[in-house]
Amino acid sequence: MTSPPVKCFRLLACLFLLLLFSANGDCASRFERVSDGRIVDFAGMVADLKGARLAFLGEVHDKREHHDLQLEVIKSLHQAGIPVAIGVEMFSFDYQPLLDRWVAGEIPLPEFVRAYQQSWTIPWAMYDDLFLYARNNRIPLVALDIPREIAMTVARHGFASLPPTVRQQLPAIASCRIDAPYMEFIRRAFENHGTGSRQQFMHFCEAQQLRNQTMAWYLLSYHKREPQRLVVVLTGVGHAMKRGIPYEIHELSPLPLKVVIPRLAPGARNSLDVSDADYYLLD
To answer: What is the span of the domain harbouring residue 96?
Structure first.
């Protein structure tokens, strides 16, 4: 029988994979613009993204349609002459040298695919076009997440269990602070898959918040080095929503950002507030 701590960590890995959606996202799609409730087309949405420094494109990791939409946005920005970079949840920050070498054309495809498979559990075929487009067009990739073993330790035993040597690997801002609205969002998803003890749930929340804080820090650090680039951020919906990484960004900087959320099944969509995004995909 799987132990409760292991179940808790597995929820960390699959929580936002379980958000389901039922529509294709392509350049013929329509989006609801939250600021005024108007319906805009793909071109109108992308035009608005150009004014941001960070553009979060949420995803359900195993939905190819989400990645197709992400790629279309990146292509549109790149072809319009906008300097872009791509922030990726799929690699932890210790993989940054590898991503740099990949974009520079210094790593053969089989070697990069092996590294990807070590870092991320979703099949390579879901992301191949995105990573190949970045390489072929020399678009920088920014590794954002914490190493898997750190996430697992926090999900099982809490942030306080991390030894000093491990904490030194994390940004100085990393903490176990849990934002109440985001915690409530996690609670709803957590309870859909079996309730654990309060302590298990708190550890689960700490792991999610630690990931949000770390990804925010690396995004801001990259922006300081490359302020002219618009960073398109590819993460799960639960990290991309405004209560996720964007909240942590705004705690540190007024950097302008936008959030685009794909169309979700009713149950998942109902767990999000209108204010969680700037655009919602309609069809």
So the answer is: 4-281
Neighbours of 213 (CB within 10 A): 24
Instruction: Report yes or no: 44 and 38 within 8 Å, Cβ to Cβ.
Output: no
CA 79 to chain centre: 23
The predicted-structure confidence for 107-116, as pLDDT tens digits, reads as follows 999 999 999 9
Report CA torsion sign: 175, 183, 150, 146: negative
Give the total residue count for the chain.
283
* pLDDT tens-digit map of 77-88: 999 999 999 999
How many domains does the chain divide into?
A: 1
Classify burial at 129, counting beta carbons within 10 Å of its beta carbon; exposed 0-12, middle 13-18, buried 19 or more.
middle
CATH assignment of the domain containing 129: 3.40.50.11550
Q: In the structure encoding, which two tokens stand for residue 229, read together?
A: 């680039």
Q: Judge contact between 259 and 276, C-beta under 8 A.
A: yes
Region label for 138, one of left (φ > 0), alpha (ψ between -120 and 50) or beta (otherwise): left
